[in-house]
Q: What sequence folds into this?
């Protein structure tokens, strides 16, 4: 807010700009005076706006920038502080803790300027962060019209941080401004954050501020500081390289130009029609062999971005002649166009989705049949990836035929001419530390009650590594904020098409890594293995997600007597052909919608089969006629264990688990 004198100067200059340009001396002198007034870059940090929430019962700071030596006075309620900006122009005013009460104003002023923030509340501030499922807005989630119409909770406030990356630490970042929760505003709130806050409001009637800083599709390591991440052995070299490039702006500019040129060539490659290898009669005898599933980078094709083809010939019995069938190719990174006997049967442009296609009648024939897949990889890893159990072709009444194994493979002609993609100049979000620098660092003086976190999908392929990254993130944030605040997260939901046989799962391993982080003090987990959607990585039911997060906070931060966790694996006893599973949080175990599902059991050969399971008191007894000497039990161990149905009296689902510690599919990733 400018004062009247400054506004008059600005208005006079604007109205007389033509005369200034003609050299009118009085206006030139006035222009010089105005410049002197405007040279003071006085402002408050962007996080401070009307309608904000300050953390109650903790000492706190308000900060901003101004001219060195020009005092700044900050007043709120019955407190006032006068400070002077340092040589870099930054000032910070510190205040004693405040408690709940009516809305109030904050005045920040110098001799020349004044800023007033209105409708400020003291309450509890929760930082909301992660990737797209945290970013997902109320208007995008389930039952949006009714939820928006009923979204009148004036004590809930929300601010959303702009998407910004930076290889160096930023002091400030733009945002939406704090918004009061009204039907006009709530549609743009983080759905998980809003439903979390709403549950707290219902129970506590305390103002809740949601500081929302998230970015869809991001990896966990981009949210961790360089000081912490450089001590992780997997990232030491990456941090050193990033810091080296940042210290050499000319090198970064050159890399940016190289990458821009490569991207132009890449777009031409995607449009290239000269390489068309779907024809069944094509001679592919000179193509190399490659294993599928398995990224092509892991098989010697580093930095291959562009188009490559997979081909395979299968032999079918007479009973398949002219019959409809189904084919599954697992996950393909990033885009596939799939042909059977030269005819296109499907295409998906999402690396997280399993390719399930229907093959129409009259397309298959007895004897040899051709499958050709045109795969386009835009960045990062590429190829047919995922689980061997997700690669098959089947028809009604016939056993499925596995398609995992050796395929013929060849890069398209134009892709081969591209060469390796130049290293990115750290412009996108998915590099280590960039969002920590840009979207966390500006708020390190903010006092908060805790953090809610929803992320992990983008790290599922490196789930074993996540075991160390998740605790590192928690400790990093606590150290940098200087607060031992609570940290609660959402375990990954069930997702992708269910499969008929037990097997390994990267998503199950990521869930396990998340659960292992519960050993860190003052943490909690919302298990949502029962409310995901097979075909949507963004399940619409965000209401239960927010509620289950809130149960953790209500029990641990606000000391409410609520059930906050579903059954958690505690121990196993093997006796004969039976395994007895004991749980924590097991009061009132029950199975929802029929007998227990998604228990599997294996002997020492590690070959799992579906198991029978029944509840006995606070335990579950698991067995199978096929396994005489069991060595391991697993529950809900799949990308999508659809229909898993073990709950406790609180109506919360059991957390997926395994009793073994056998090597998983992500351990070397």
A:
């Amino acid at each position: 807010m400018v004062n009247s004198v400054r506004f008059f100067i600005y208005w006079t200059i604007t109205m007389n700009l033509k005369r200034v340009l003609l050299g009118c001396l009085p206006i030139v002198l006035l222009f010089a005076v105005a410049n002197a007034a405007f040279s003071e870059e006085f402002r408050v940090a962007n996080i401070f706006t009307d309608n904000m929430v300050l953390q109650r019962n903790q000492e706190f700071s308000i900060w901003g920038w101004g001219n060195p030596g020009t005092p700044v006075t900050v007043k709120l309620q019955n407190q006032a502080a006068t400070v002077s900006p340092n040589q870099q122009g930054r000032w910070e005013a510190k205040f004693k803790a405040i408690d709940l009460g009516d809305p109030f104003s904050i005045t920040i002023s110098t001799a020349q300027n004044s800023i007033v923030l209105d409708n400020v509340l003291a309450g509890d501030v929760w930082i909301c962060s992660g990737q797209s499922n945290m970013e997902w807005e109320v208007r995008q989630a389930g039952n949006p019209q009714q939820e928006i119409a009923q979204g009148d909770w004036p004590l809930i406030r929300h601010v959303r941080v702009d998407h910004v990356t930076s290889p160096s630490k930023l002091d400030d970042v733009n945002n939406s401004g704090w918004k009061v929760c009204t039907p006009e505003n709530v549609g743009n709130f983080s759905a998980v954050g809003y439903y979390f806050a709403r549950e707290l409001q219902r129970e506590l009637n305390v103002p809740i501020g949601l500081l929302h800083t998230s970015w869809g599709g991001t990896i966990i390591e981009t949210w961790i500081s360089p000081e912490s991440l450089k001590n992780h052995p997997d990232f030491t070299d990456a941090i050193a390289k990033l810091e080296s490039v940042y210290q050499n702006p000319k090198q970064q500019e050159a890399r940016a130009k190289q990458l821009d040129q490569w991207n132009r060539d890449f777009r031409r490659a995607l449009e290239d029609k000269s390489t068309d290898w779907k024809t069944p009669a094509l001679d592919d005898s000179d193509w190399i062999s490659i294993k599928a599933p398995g990224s092509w980078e892991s098989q010697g094709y580093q930095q291959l971005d562009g188009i490559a083809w997979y081909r395979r010939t299968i032999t079918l019995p007479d009973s398949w002649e002219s019959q409809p069938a189904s084919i599954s190719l697992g996950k393909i990174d990033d885009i596939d166009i799939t042909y059977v006997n030269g005819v296109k049967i499907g295409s998906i442009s999402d690396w997280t989705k399993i390719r399930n296609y229907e093959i129409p009648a009259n397309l298959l024939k007895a004897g040899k049949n051709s499958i050709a897949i045109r795969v386009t990889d835009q960045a990062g890893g590429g190829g047919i990836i995922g689980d061997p159990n997700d690669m098959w072709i089947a028809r009604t009444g016939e056993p499925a035929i596995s398609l995992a194994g050796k395929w013929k493979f060849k890069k398209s002609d134009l892709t081969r001419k591209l060469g390796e993609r130049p290293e990115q100049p750290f412009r996108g979000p998915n590099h280590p530390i960039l969002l920590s620098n840009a979207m966390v660092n500006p708020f390190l003086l903010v006092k908060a009650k805790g953090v809610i976190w929803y992320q992990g999908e983008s790290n599922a392929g490196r789930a074993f590594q996540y075991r160390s990254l998740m605790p590192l993130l928690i400790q990093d944030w606590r150290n940098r904020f200087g607060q031992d605040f609570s940290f609660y997260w959402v375990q990954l939901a069930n997702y992708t098409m269910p499969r008929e046989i037990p097997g390994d799962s990267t998503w199950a391993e990521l869930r396990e890594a998340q659960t292992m982080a519960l050993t860190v003090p003052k943490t909690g987990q919302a298990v949502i293995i029962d409310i995901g959607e097979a075909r949507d990585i963004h399940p619409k039911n965000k209401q239960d997600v927010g509620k289950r997060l809130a149960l953790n906070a209500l029990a641990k931060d606000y000391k409410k007597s609520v059930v906050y966790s579903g059954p958690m694996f505690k121990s196993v006893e093997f006796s004969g052909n039976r395994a007895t599973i004991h749980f924590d949080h097991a009061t009132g175990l029950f199975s929802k919608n029929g007998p227990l599902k998604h228990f599997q059991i294996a002997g020492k050969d590690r070959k799992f089969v579906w198991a029978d399971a029944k509840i006995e008191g606070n335990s579950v007894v698991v067995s199978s006629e096929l396994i005489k000497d069991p060595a391991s039990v697993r529950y809900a161990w799949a990308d999508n264990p659809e229909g898993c149905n073990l709950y406790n009296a609180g109506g919360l689902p059991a957390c997926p688990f395994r009793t073994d510690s056998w090597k998983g599919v992500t351990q070397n990733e």
